[in-house]
Amino acid sequence: MQGEVLGRRYAKALFELTKDDQNRTAIGAMLADLGVALGRSRPLADACFNPQYPTEAKRAVLAEAVRRAATGSLAGSFLDLLLKKNRLRFLPAIAGAYQALLDESAGRQRVSVATAHPLSPDDEGALRRRLEATTKRTVVLDLHVDPDLIGGLVIRWGSLYYDGSLKGQLERLHQRLSTA
């Protein structure tokens, strides 16, 4: 919970600072990539979080990430601030909140869709059109396959959740039968 609150706070501040920055989208991508890399790469996470490494070494690692992403000095200053305030561990939450602000400003809505089987391009297009009609925004689908669903799909956007999966239907039927 604290990570989400801090993530939104830092993301909003960075978003305001990048209002006139041409690198706004690149900064969001760099934050997301670095957040994922910190979660997946043990040596990178160790270099950034281990107190045995000096701050200058950590700063050099982050500066290299900024250099590779070509996002400019503002992104480097932001990561340096996170390092100084010992908030680097909240980078995934900050990246997510920053991306949500980018989407909102561009009139986009990210929708997470889990399906039991991969969707055909026609089905994906039909789903996107239906969601765009519902949300009145451009929809960006985050599709992933979850074979445990058996059939159907699960849709999440914002705080809304729709479970149209066979697994969900069976679980609801089981609950009704067990309470009857």
Account of the 3D structure:
Helices cover 62% and strands 14% of the residues. It has 180 residues and is α+β, with helices and mostly antiparallel strands. The chain has 2 domains: 2-104, Orthogonal Bundle (Peroxidase, domain 1); 108-179, Glutaredoxin, CATH 3.40.30. It has a 4-stranded mixed beta sheet with strand order 2-1-3-4, with helices on both faces. Helix 7 links the parallel strand 1 and strand 2. It is globular. The two termini are 37 Å apart. The relative contact order is 0.12.
Write the layout of secondary structure elements.
Blueprint lengths: L1 H16 L6 H17 L1 H8 L5 H15 L3 H12 L6 H15 L2 E8 L5 H15 L2 E8 L7 E5 L2 E4 L2 H14 L1
Parallel strand pairs: 1-2
Antiparallel strand pairs: 1-3, 3-4
Structural class: alpha+beta
Overall shape: globular
Poorly predicted sequence stretches spanning 5 or more consecutive residues = none
Main sheet: which strands, in order across? 2-1-3-4
The tally of structural domains comes to 2
N-to-C order of helices and strands: HHHHHHEHEEEH
Beta-strand segment tally: 4
For the record, the CATH architecture of the largest domain stands as Orthogonal Bundle
Total of helices: 8
By CATH, the topology of the largest domain is: Peroxidase, domain 1
Estimate the mean pLDDT confidence: 91
